[in-house]
Specification:
Elements (H helix, E strand, L loop, with lengths): L5 H17 L6 H16 L1 H8 L7 H11 L7 E5 L5 H10 L12 E5 L10 E4 L7 H10 L5 E6 L9 H22 E12 L4 H11 E7 L10 E9 L6
Parallel strand pairs: 1-2, 1-4, 2-3, 4-5
Antiparallel strand pairs: 5-7, 6-7
Helix pairs in contact: 7-8
This protein binds S-adenosylmethionine (SAM).
The site of S-adenosylmethionine (SAM) has 23 residues, from α5.
Length: about 250
């Protein structure tokens, strides 16, 4: 019989843990099929392959690259706040484009601040506020000290709440999160600045667009090619911010 040493107990424990908590064969049939479909879709997705090849943390990098190639939001020297930044692919794009790691010595050096409820692995050129809620005024209060002049040129949001599986409910929750971005914009966005935010299309999208139109000179809805065709995901790009008129 094998001696039961501490390392062998640890190995046994980890095998049992994997068997009971990670084995897909223990998932209900419906979930197992969904997991297999997801794996098949991932392995056939050209953006997933390209993100591995280019060392992006996830495929969503290509959505921002595509939008930024067209609209040139991220210029060297810009201050950027990336809401819902984990795992950090949009921040990788922003760091590169605004030169916040100082890689291009002849160009102005920008600033990137990322916020997420989850942990965001460190990235050279970015300052991350992990375990922070974008809806929390305490998070907003930390931002001015992290941005040159206390203000950002661009506010990005790829935030998404955990999907409940009920399309309308998820849509409403995400529109609710986007509304917090308007409070945040009032505190930190420079006049003339831009906001790019994800939403899931649905009944409240027009209301959100109307709210954005009150404080931005132009608002348009975008569906980048990298966004999956079968998803309700879209982005509002709002440009030329002006301070809200109170009263
Ligand atoms: C689709 S992921 C973002 C991916 C990211 N753009 C990237 O390229 O790596 C959505 C993120 O939004 C975050 N999120 C959702 N609600 C949030 C909130 N209230 N405050 C901060 N982050 C939030 C989630 O934790 C999740 O990490």
């Amino acid at each position: 019989m094998l001696p039961v040493t501490l390392p062998s107990l640890q190995i046994m424990f980890s095998l049992l843990h994997r068997r009971f908590f990670h084995s897909s064969s223990r998932l209900p049939k419906k979930k197992r099929i969904a997991e297999q479909r997801w794996l098949a879709r991932q392995s056939n997705d050209p953006y997933v392959k390209a993100s591995h090849a280019l060392n992006f943390r996830c495929r969503s990098a290509f959505k921002l690259l595509e939008i930024d190639d067209k609209f040139r939001l991220l210029q060297p020297g810009c201050g950027v706040v990336d809401c819902g930044a984990a795992p950090g692919a949009w921040s990788q794009v922003a760091v590169h484009r605004v030169n916040s790691a100082g890689t291009e010595s002849t160009l102005r050096r920008g600033t990137v601040v990322g916020i997420d409820l989850l942990n965001i692995p460190p990235l050279d050129g970015a300052h991350f506020l992990s375990s922070h809620d974008v809806a929390d005024p305490a998070t907003h209060a930390k931002l001015p000290d992290l941005l040159p002049g206390g203000r950002a040129h661009v506010l990005l949001s790829d935030m998404a709440p955990n999907a409940s599986g009920f399309r309308e409910l998820d849509h409403e929750r995400l529109v609710g999160l986007c509304s917090f971005l308007l409070d945040l914009a009032e505190k930190i966005l420079r006049p003339g600045g831009s906001l790019l935010c994800k939403y899931w299309d649905g009944a409240l999208a027009c209301q959100l667009q109307d709210k954005l139109c009150l404080v931005f000179g132009s608002v348009q809805s975008l569906k980048p090619n990298a966004s999956r065709k079968d998803s309700a995901e879209r982005y509002f790009l709002a440009r030329n911010y002006r301070k809200p008129v109170k009263g």
